[in-house]
């Protein structure tokens, strides 16, 4: 059944989906066997004129789950030492519990019906988050089981760039390569990029200014 809402509301802009920007740092490419080492989440809000900005942020260093594989090449790339006690790492359960709680509150506050992951090369981050959620057996996972908004694809369309750093620079967003491959930094830049891509489409006249729209729950 279709439901009508004001256009300048997050629930209307994305057909009832609540976008949450996610980035993970891992010890490999296999979500089922390789450790999740870091995760950050940034929620998105919309003002009464229909412009997107970043909202709330959570960030966790994560302990490798029991039996997790740590690929040396991945650790050299992201420069994470899983055994460093100064990381202040928490379990996957603790990290996802807090993220899911924040996201479920955002869904309720914005009257959306489900969260959707926004990420750069989103299949990777989605896969690791879903694998961790399965391992922790957390109930009420707020994220769509397969749909995502991929800023790599969106940037390729809008900016002609698919690498996060190059897409940000092309969009006029400052990007510091020395801080890259930190989940927090990459998530914040990806959130800024996603908001700019959506807002740019609105500035170009690609988003309606009529007072109502509708969507179907899926």
TrEMBL record:
Its EC number is 3.1.13.-. Residues 18-203 form the Exonuclease domain. GO terms for cellular component: cytosol. GO terms for molecular function: 3'-5' exonuclease activity; magnesium ion binding; nucleic acid binding; RNA exonuclease activity, producing 5'-phosphomonoesters. SMART domains: EXOIII. The active site is at residue 181. Its cofactor is Mg(2+). Binds two Mg(2+) per subunit. The active form of the enzyme binds two Mg(2+) ions in its active site. The first Mg(2+) forms only one salt bridge with the protein. Pfam families: RNase_T (PF00929). Keywords: Exonuclease, Hydrolase, Magnesium, Metal-binding, Nuclease, tRNA processing. GO terms for biological process: DNA replication proofreading; tRNA processing. The record marks 29, 77, 124, 146 as: Important for substrate binding and specificity. Belongs to the RNase T family. This is Ribonuclease T.
